[in-house]
Design a protein that fits this description.
Layout: H1 14-24, E1 61-66, E2 69-75, E3 81-87, E4 100-101, E5 113-115, E6 121-127, E7 133-139, E8 152-153, E9 165-170, E10 173-179, E11 185-191, E12 204-205, E13 217-222, E14 225-231, E15 237-243, E16 256-257, E17 268-274, E18 277-283, E19 289-295, E20 298-300, E21 307-313, E22 318-321, E23 329-332, E24 337-343, E25 349-354, E26 362-367
Antiparallel strand pairs: 1-2, 2-3, 3-4, 5-6, 6-7, 7-8, 9-10, 10-11, 11-12, 13-14, 14-15, 15-16, 17-18, 18-19, 19-20, 21-24, 22-23, 24-25, 25-26
Amino acid sequence: MQISYYRGQFQATRWLLERLARQIGLVVVAFVLTALPASAQSDWAAFRDIGGVFGPGAPIAAISRGSNRIDLFVTGMNGHVYTSTYIEGRDWTGIGHKWTDIGGVFPAGAPLAALSRTPNRLDVFVTGHNGNVYTSSYSDGGQWTGFGDKWTDIGGVFQPAAPVTAISRNPNQIDLFITGLNGDVYTSYSVHGGPWSGAGNKWIDIGGVFPNAAKISAVSRNPNRLDLFVTGHNGDVYTSWYNDGGSWSGLGNRWKSVGGSFPAGAPNAALSRKPNQLDVFITGHDGVVYTSWSIDGAGGGGGGGGDDTAVLTVVEAVTGYNQPGGDDRCYLEAGDKVVLVMKKDDDPIWVMIEGWTGGCKDMRAWIYNDGKLR
């Protein structure tokens, strides 16, 4: 029996888990957890100058709308937005401080959000001096709509230069998110190139009590689902989600805490590498990067209480008992997902496998300090 390990911090030895697997007859594919490769060779090229005259530390928005193209955006010291493009086989267009000025009069160094709904379209967003959100777009064969300081005002009353989060869950829709002056999260959207729902300061309040202008991470696992993450005043990371046809789970300040103890309002990064998995990353007070993940709603790696979790996939039907020596028969079908939890704080250590059917709520096995499974 082979078990693959994808996270070094999981507190169990290989022989111990293999012993457990043999005892209960469970066949698994892998632990699906966040980790770096075992051997990380650095093949990075040396950093090179690609031009620009911007403020030190000015945030850059980067996007790839094809495997051979990169577009960069940054707000200059004069408040204009600049762009530089790389196409495979050519060099950066901004080399020699020739970044293209695409207009705007915004706070110097204001963070930008950029997205590509299709390979031929770019949209950029920024919060202005007046607290309104502005946008400019580009379609191949045309020019930027914001040239000559003609960026489109799409409403809002936010802190100047507050970071905007933009996401496209299908080619015809853009959703924007921003934390307001009152700490609530607000959203505005546009469908099929139509008017913005938040135009005229009609952004929708979807709850929360967070630090003013706290940065939001947004993930779309599928075209009908959105997940948001933001760090609260107490250092916890909070989430709210939306499914088409429903309402935001965090309405009425019911955002769900997923744990943590981080700087208030600290930016986090979230992504979905498959439709049933979310990974979140954040830097702590100690300068260390932390991660938490959720797989089909079964969380792991967060800042909570003394458990480590892993999701297992059964590759062939197996049977077992609800506890060692028990009489209640349980079974699993091929393809079933189960959650393994290893308690680190108890003596003896115990392992629980949830997801059993056939009359058993769970299956447990106890492993004592002598390493014997009973």
